[in-house]
Amino acid sequence: MNTIKNLKDLVTGIVAKQLELQKHEIKEDANIFEDLGLDSTGVIELLLALEEECEIEFDMEELDPANLESINAITEYILELR
Known about the structure:
The chain is mainly alpha-helical. It has one domain (3-81): Orthogonal Bundle (Non-ribosomal Peptide Synthetase Peptidyl Carrier Protein, Chain A). Helix content is 52%, strand content 0%. It starts with a helix and ends with a helix. The mean pLDDT is 94.
């Protein structure tokens, strides 16, 4: 089992749901703010969904927006938190 691939698939699914897109419409390196249009409300919803699905907790005071810029960045950040 490829844990990173599974995590990327999970993150892609969560982002797709938040943005009302199909998973195949999201490239792993696409900027979810600039390329896909995620707004500030969407960020909060995304963080909550990621916390629930990935069983992690984000520290809002230390959260760097760069860690949320793409599927790849989110996946790497979650792996660091685990």
